Every structure is written in C-alpha cells, then in structure tokens.
Fold these 3 entries.
Entry 1:
Amino acid sequence: MSEPSHVEGIAQMSKLEGKVAVVTGASKGIGAAIAKALAKDGAAVVVNYASSKAGADAVVAAIIEAGGRAVAVQADVSKAEQAKGLIDAAAQQFGRLDVLVNNSGVYEFAAIEEVTEEHYRRLFDINVLGALLATRAAARHLGEGGSIINISSVVTDVNMPTSSVYTGTKAALNGISGVLANELAPRKIRVNTVSPGYVVTEGTHTAGIAGSEMEAGLVAQTPLGRAGQPDDIARVVAFLASDDARWVTGEVINASGGVR
C-alpha cells in the first residue's frame, strides 16, 4: 500500500480551524510570517498595520491565494480607541476572537548620552502601551481557550550596549506577560511570550545589518550557527496559539538559535 500524499496548503492544516486571530504589526517581517502561519493552520486572520497598507494588503492577498481568510485593518495600537477598533473589527468581520499576537514594535538603539524623551516615549508607547491596550480590548472577546502571545526579544538576556530603552520595553513586556498569565488564568486564557534572537527581515536590510560584519558577529554568537528567519518565529507562535499548547502559560520561550 502506498503512503498517503501530503498536499501543501491551508486546507491540509487545521490546528487552528475555526479560530480567529489578530496579529498586530503584520505588514512585514516577523508579523507577516506569523499571520501567514496562523492562516496556514486554519485561522482567519486580521492583519494589522499602522502605515504600510500595501504591505498588509500583500500579506492578505498571499493568505487568500493559498485558500485562507484574512483582512487588513489599519490601527495604531498605542492609541486606545484605535486598539479597540482593531479588536472590534475582528469580532465584526469573523464573529469571534481566539488569538491575539502583540507583535507591533519598533527598535531603535541609542547610547545613553543620546537618549531623549521622544526616543523613550516612542518605544514605550508602541512596544509596551500598545500591547496593553490591544490586550485590554481583546480580553472582552476572548473566551476559554483564548491565547495571547507577546513578541519580546532575546536582548533582555544579552544586555546589548546602546539598547537600554529598547531592552527596557521588552523586559517590561516580559513582566506584564507573567502578570497577565496569572490574571487571566481563571478565565482559561493563556498568555505567553516569544523572544526572538537575530532574525533577517526587511528592517535588518533597511538598517544595513543584513550582510554586514555586525550580522556575521551575531551569527557567530548563535549556537545553531545561522541567522533566524521570520518563519522560525512564526512556527513557535502557531504552536502557542493552538490547543497543542493548552497546558502552557506564563512562559517566555527564546526562539534564538540558542542565544541566551
């Protein structure tokens, strides 16, 4: 008897069938990969973007072409009304909400002599306040089995020079995740954190890191010996979103190739 064939595509992947997910900051990079991975596993996905409509539309088009369901919704999650509008749009479009991935974030490095109020507030507003506001809005819709996944960074472990504010935002996010895991546990809503290491994205290309000596140094420090790819992070997130992770909450999972 021949082995059954395995056809690639959304129809063959059903771990998230019937679920609805919101991914913030999903127009490119890690967020885009997460949106596609959740859709591949069967979820209907709201692809959030702040400014890159073209990028979000391209992600939605790729998901639909593969047989999935997705819509793009513009919102600056650091603004309370817009964060609420994003979550409400998911419920209105697909009738429910099961998964929230707080991926929106900015990374800017500055030596301590160059840290400004503007730099601090921009990073904390988007990286921390945005996650809080989106989670506050989502908590009204999430029921038993709901999953919240916050995207942090391995910088909280490595103490990288010139990253004091950025590292501070991710350390805050880690702490908030732990609190919310306990706070929402009575409602059977899980909260976990994924901390990527160095990942090649559009942002690293724009910043001149990809292909540079800095990238070579980061890879040299990575035990698995390569740079991360967006899908390396997306598959971890998809696991945490699914019922396979039903007994996992309050965890910080490093997806860093061994960097710690």
Entry 2:
Amino acid sequence: QTSLSPATSSSSSGRIPKRSQANRPPAPVNVSVMHLRADSATVSWEVPEGDIIIGFSISQQRQDGHMQRFIREVNTTSRSCVLWDLEEETDYIIQVQSIGLYGESQASKKVHFRTLKKSDQFSSNSSNQDDPTVQGLDKSRHLQTGEMIIIVVVLVMWAAVIALFCRQYDIIKDNDSSNSKEKVKPLSERSTPEHHSGGLLRSKVNLKKCYSLRDF
C-alpha cells in the first residue's frame, strides 16, 4: 500500500503523461524576421524532420506589453507568416509554436524586432533581396515594361500603315482627277466644230429657201 502513494500523488498533480509529451511536436527552430517594413514583417521558422505538423501559432506583442496578437493556422504546411498592421518604429516580440496531431509544441525562443520608418521602407535592406514578394513585384514591373514596349511598337506600326494608306489614297485621287480632266477636254473640243457645222448647214438651208422664193 505504501508503494501506491507516489503513483497517487503524481496523478493528482495534473501533469501531462509522458506518452502525450512524447507525441507533441518539438518547438520550431531558427525563427527569424525578414522583410521589415513600416507596417509589416515576415516571420519564418523551421521544423525538425520526421514530425507531422498540421499548422502553427504565433504570439505577437509589443515590447512595452500594450498590445498582443495571437495568430493560429491549421491545415497548412507553411513555414512563414506575414504580420500586418504593425506600427512604425515599434519594438515587437514574437514566439512560434508548431501544431501537431496531438497538440501544440512548446513556444520557441523569443525573437525581438523593430519596424522601420515609413520614409525608410523603400530603402530595402539586404534581406529584401530574397523576398519572394519583392521578386514578384520586380517580375511584374519587367512584364509591364515589356508590355508597354510591345504596345508602342504596335502603335508605331499602325501609324506607319495608316500614313502609307493615306499617301497611296492621295496618289490615286490625283490620278483620277487628272484622268477626268483629260476626258472632259476632248469632248469640249469636239462640240465646237459640230456647232459650227451645224451653223453652216442651217445657213445653206436658208439660202436654198431664198433661191426658191426668188424663182417664184
């Protein structure tokens, strides 16, 4: 009976059984903060291999303790998270926990970081060069520049085609007008002798009529 008292005291203390502690995932390692800006930052971490991780949770608070935020995501294999709505030039403390099939891990070591000024957020530091978001923006800028060049080339080609068409149209119009003038000129010249000949015929007819009257 005396041998049961230690077991009874250990169970009544409310400790988690050793089996449950063994099934809990280990705490994340290599927690770091990258891509610091005035109102955002990216937290990344690593998880030891061999453990089934189904999510993560992040506790965020200001160093002065006035604000605290808790982020929890499940059904994801992500190893990073973007923190939004941060205040500029403010010190923050974060800790990350892994979520496994049997519970959450212990919190990682505390990581301190400080946000930038709004005026300095565009002067990126060396860590921003590896930012996927920044790389995506750079690619989109290159795509926009290429699209603008293509649009300008197409517009120039269309302008050249329209100018060539207008030039050819003017040439054709000038040729048509000159041809019409040449056709009208011979017709006018032909009408004159016909009119005169007609006049002479009429005079001859009048003379014949006069001669006939004199005979009578």
Entry 3:
Amino acid sequence: MLAVGLIIFAVLLVIGAPIWLALGASGGYWLLVQMGLPVESIASQYFIATDSWILLAVPYFLLAGNLMTFMGPASKMFRFINNLVGHLPGGMPAAVVVTSAIFGALSGSSVATVVAVGSMAIPQMIKMGYSKENSYGVLAASGTLGQMIPPSIFMILFAASTQLDPGALFMAGIVPGLFLAAVLVIVAIIVGLKEEKQRPQRSRIKEIVSSFVAAIPSLLMPVVILGGIYGGIFTPTEAAAIAVVYVLLISFIFNRNECTFDNFKKSLLYTMVTTSIIYILLGGAKLFATAMTYIQIPQMITEFAVSIDVAGWVIMLVIVLLFLIFGMFLDAIPILYITLPILYPVVISLGYDPIHFAVITVAALMIGQITPPVGSCLYAISGHFKENMGVVVRGANPYLVGLIVGTLVLIYIPWLSLFLFQ
C-alpha cells in the first residue's frame, strides 16, 4: 500500500506534474482506494488545510512586501544602507545582505526579495567591478534571510502545522536570523575584497542623513509590526493586515510618483499568484500527511527513533541532511509539508524543544533555496536577469557554505534560539 502511493508520487514528479498534484494523487490513493474513505474526504482536506486564522497572515504579508517593491519604499531603504556602508571594504555586498534581510522580513518571499533588491543592486555591483558570480551569489543567499527574520512566512506555516504560537516562533527567529545575516556579511566581505576594483567614495554626512530621513518610514515598519505583536496589541494575523495599511499610507504620503493604480494592481497580481500556489500546495500536502498518519508512518518512525541507541544530536543531524537532500529537488514549502508530519513527532519524542526545531527547520529550508538544481532563488535570479544558471550557482557556493556552517552552530547552540524564553 505504501509502495504504490510512493510510486504514484515519484512518477508524477518525474514526468513534471505540479507538486500539489503529486501530493494529492498519492494521498488520495491511500485515502480512497486503500482506506476506503468517501470521495468527499478529498475536498474536505483541501478546505481543512487552508481553514486557519494563522494562514490569513500569509497573503497580507506577501502583499505588504510587493507594495514595498512596486510603490517605492524599498528603494529608499537600499539607498540609505548603501550610503552608510557602501564605501567600506566589501561594502556593497554587505549592503545587499542587510537590505535583503530587512526587505525579506517584510515581504516574506525570497523570490520577491532577490528580484526587488537585485534590480537595484546588481547593476551597481557590476559597474563597481564585482564579478557577476559574486553579485548574483550574495543576492541569492541573502534573499533567504527573510524566511528566518520575523515576520516569517515559513514560521507562520510551521505554526499552522504544529499548533505552536507564531509569536513565539517570531521571537525565536530574531537572533538566529541576525546571526545568519552576520555570517553572510562576513563571507560577502571576504569574497568581495578579493575582486573589488572600484570602491565608491564615502557618502557625505548630508547624504547619509537625507537618505536616512527618507528611509525612516520603511525602517519603522518592522518596529511597528513586531512591537505590536510582542506588546500584545494585535495578533500576527492582524499585524499582517496592518502592515498592508502601513505601506499604503507611507507610499501615498512619501512616494506619490510610484504610488499609482498600475503599481497597486501589480502588487495584487503577484500576491494572488503566490498565495494561490501556497494554498493549493497546502491542500495537496494535507492529503498526503493525513494519509501518512492513517497508515501510521510517523508513529512507526517515532518508535524506531526512540528505540535505537543513538544520541539525539545525531538524529537531528540526519534530519537536517534529509532537508538538504530534499532541497536539491523540491521547493521549500512542499518539503515543509511533506516532512513535518513525520519528523515533528520524532523530534518531540527525543526531548528537543519544538521552538528550537522550528528554527533549525527554517535554516535548513533556507539552504535548500540556493542548492542546485532546484533552488528557487537560483532560478529567480537566472530567469529575471537572463543569466546562465552555472554563473549563479558558482557565485552562491561560498555563501552556501556559510549558511551550512551557521546552521550547524544553531543546532549545537540552542541558546541562540531559546534565550529570549529563559
């Protein structure tokens, strides 16, 4: 029974079927043919997958990020950061990391981050003498930081799947996100120093101050959103809706030229497409996970993991390796929904803190977004900038190593994820 379902899943993936269809078909086979459940159970699983108050935050945060891109606030934020650190050794790549971390946290989308930040930064980096490989590589890696730094779409999806508090997961992601950003900044400086040919002059104090004043509304957005969540003023879902209103207000007040109905329509379109992809994936993954639970696969794996005489950290390392292997062939969200129903009970039975596991999971999924051949950030950069995939992959390799080392540190130093709760 298990083998037939897995064969259906594998065959559909090999022939290029959408991942949601592969998940739904294999899960539907188990539920309908093998378990004998009624046909109505298929439709009900799709509704159950998206019937969550927490998941309402996803389209709102995505819309806020797209509005930042098309309405102008993102460009002002990048200008300030570039004026502040662009003249330093390796300053331009470091500015890309910092900008991507902030913008990624606001948009919740790695693809949106690399397109928005890359459109501003890549031409300048190449003009200054940085290689295409390094320019695309630092952009690909730093585009993933928004998945850890709150408010993170991945943390929302993790919370919805495990019934954890999304606010707690947001708090847990702050320090690890900043730590991984610092790791990427260090790598960016090291790589940048080897090839930097032209360094811009130090910006005048007047330019820094003026760009900072222009960027204040954008820079205040994380303070408003996260402060409201942690202060108990509103829930993460309400915060997502407030983020949309906030971006519309600052765009209307400070960016009249970019605040047009056409840009608003573009923001809505990109948001609807991404949200639809996520939600239909949730439905297929829910079918797959429900079937696996009926077959008792998670229970059997949990019993096996508890019975073997192996240290818990070894099993955690194997789990992260599994995430990395999946990341070479699948996008991050399908990986999350395929593996979480199986692995989460195992990790909890071994005594690991669920919040720490959430941080490790998101870090591993970040790595998967820049691992060839199916890294979503790699494809986004290659497609948007019309660049050969090999160039992007070569540039991302040093940063890939940095993210792997950073994830290992997070695994073995839980304090980085949990000290805010102690």
